[in-house]
Amino acid sequence: MAYACVAPTARIFRPVLVRGPARSRNVVLTFDDGPTSPFTEQILDILAERKVPATFFLCGKNVERLPEIARRIVREGHTVGNHTYSHPLLLLHSRKFMAGEIDRAQEAIEGVTGVRPNLFRPPYGGRWFGLMPTLKARGLKMVMWSAAGYDWKYRTQAIIKATTREMHSGSVVLLHDGHERQPPEKVDQSSTVEALPAIIDAATDAGLKFVTIEEFTL
Asked: CATH assignment of 2-216?
């Protein structure tokens, strides 16, 4: 049961995107928990310089706090997804609670960016009974991951090593531009920012191509 509810590759709660076809040589870069300042802006600067698309799973509360950064994400051609409003662990919560978190985030993201997400990623990867019908009723597709940088606990070189070790053709890569429910002044994703260019270079050297999640799912 614990594996089914928490492990990112578990397929009991379906449908879910974990990885794409290995033959494609494509990978998708995703960021969770933002936006936060200055880290989301710094990540966007790197992505723009390297011409790399990404998907940002946004928390509605952070979107309301930093609307211009959320708008910049969309303006620069990246995809936005729903990461709930306040980043709670969904385990053991009621369907009503989950729906409220998802709906409030949808309203915040659409109200600020003009885009209504069709992708969802649960905080901490935690899923619970009632989540899948809630997503289906809202036209949301769940996206997990198959490669992680563990940047919520590692520093720069360890993030690079962990990500590149797990990153292969068809990988959905998980990084963070925010940090759970930390107060804004306590968020420090500088190691993610520092690691990102090396991760992009490693993918390129391995013959991998970063694509939008829309291309990835075709």
From this structure: 3.20.20.370
